[in-house]
Amino acid sequence: MSNGKKSLFSSVGLGAAFLMALSAVGPGFLTQTVTFTVAHKANFAFAILAVIVIDIIGQLNVWRIMGVSAMRGQDVANKVLKGSGYFLAFLVALGGLVFNIGNVGGSSQGLQALFGIDTSWSILTVGLSGLIGACLFMFRNFLSAVDKFVKILGAVVIVVLFYVMIKAAPPYSEVVAKTFAPDSYGALGMPILTLVGGTIGGYIIFSGGHRIIDAGMTGKENLGNIDKSAVSGILLCTIVRVLLFLAVLGVVSSGLLDSTSDAFKSNPVPTAFQVAAGDIGRRFFGIVMWAAGATSIVGAAYTSVSFLKTLFAVVKNYEKLFIIGFIVLSTLIMMALGRSPAVLLVLAGSLNGLILPISLGLLLCGSFRKDVVGDYQHPKILTILGFIMVLFVAYTGITSLGGIAKLWG
Fold it and tell me: What is the rounded distance in angstroms from the CA atom of residue 250 to the CA atom of residue 61?
């Protein structure tokens, strides 16, 4: 590989990987992981393993097809089935908005915990969280600013979670055993769907892919860089997921966490952090939650608007203003809701999981079209595994609708 290509990956590829990873690692990601760890304990390790495999298959398929074609998801969809790109853009933008409302709320919770701000000031912290995200897009070269922002905060999240995990002292040997032989495979269907939805569902699977297109890292000659970037994004997500899972499992195994308490039900993540590391744990929760929320606000807004800009000229001409407007709208809705975003965040992950088979299915069909990929031959193994994944996620989503209804109820 030439130095130019190495440089391209180190700058654009790594930035895209972090954007995708930190779009996923938001307040919803944290809330989902804590909620399901408490419910399934060490058995949840199998769900994490299954999600890693599913995520890599899905991400490689989507990023390769978009990267080779230099076409965004909605444009590939329109080539496959006329009008489907508009439908997909609507689904993704709607899912991104729901997720972003929770992101703003989660970021606000982080500020409250970090600085000891009373919850009666929640409207102020919600507004401040949205403002910080919006200001990032006021830079002339906002994509470069986004890359630096998510890299720095991503590193902070990993360091803090590693400390909390060490303090929690989880049962490592039990985790290894349950990773491959959980007590019940069927009971983990809903967690797997939710985690897949929260990691690569909805807008998230496209976030880094659209970033590499904007930066010009496209074409068959860049497939190596695209693969590295796609897998790196999933691995970054996994590192955060595993650290958080082990930290919470250590707390659960110690018997110190009362999952039936009102405090845990309303705010599961800060409660778990405080039990794990005392008062400093709550402060650390504030750092992690704010960083996760802030980076996800950026990723959700950028990607959701990127789905609209090739379909509507006005969005392309005023992209910055639409991104800022997206964040402002999310912030105003969160202010109006005035409730804990915990249930909304888990629900958003599940709904994004239901969008995934539609978006992945359309792009896989695009891999057979010469007006999309030219003479590129998409690997058969990825195609087969991709369609299996579409069927699996669709089936899991349909069978889990009851669970999603309970979450909302």
Answer: 36
Whole-angstrom distance, CA of residue 13 vs CA of residue 296? 18
Asked if residues 169 and 41 have their Cβ atoms less than 8 Å apart, the reply is no
Quickly count: other Cβ atoms within 10 Å of residue 129's Cβ: 27
Residue 145 is assigned to a structural domain of this protein: yes
1 in a structural domain: no
Amino acid (one-letter) located at 87: F
CB crowding 74-106: b at 16 or more within 10 Å, else e? bbbbbbbeeebbbebbebbbebbbbbbbbbbbb
Measure the N-to-C terminal CA separation of the chain; round to a whole number of Å. 54
* Nearest partner of 286 among 175, 370, 164, 405, judged by Cα: 164
**SS3 for 82?**
coil
pLDDT of 175-195, one tens digit each?
999 999 898 888 888 788 778
Per DSSP, helices labelled H in 258-341 are 262-266, 268-306, 313-317, 319-337
Q: What percent of the chain has pLDDT over 70?
A: 89
| CATH number of 317's domain | 1.20.1740.10
* 3 assigned to some structural domain: no
Please list the alpha-helical segments (H only) found in 307-341: 313-317, 319-337
pTM for this prediction: 0.83
Structural tokens at position 127 = 């507004």
> Which secondary-structure segment (H or E) carries 114?
helix 84-115
- Distance, CA of 110 to CA of 289 (rounded, Å): 5
* DSSP 3-state of 196: helix
Half-sphere exposure at residue 314, Cβ-oriented, CA atoms within 13 angstroms: 1
Q: What angle do CA 370, 372, 373 make, to 5 degrees?
A: 70
Q: Which domain holds residue 353?
A: 9-408
Q: Can you tell me the distance from the alpha carbon of 376 to that of 191, in angstroms, rounded to the nearest whole number?
A: 36
pLDDT in tens, 229-276: 999 989 999 998 999 999 889 888 887 777 777 777 777 878 888 888
For residue 77, pLDDT over 60 is answered with yes
Joined tokens for residue 273: 């952090």
Is residue 2 situated within a structural domain? no
Nearest to 301 by CA among 217, 233, 204: 204
Q: How many domains does the chain have?
A: 1
Rounded alpha-carbon distances, angstroms, from residue 31 to 103, 265, 271, 284, 296: 11, 11, 11, 15, 14
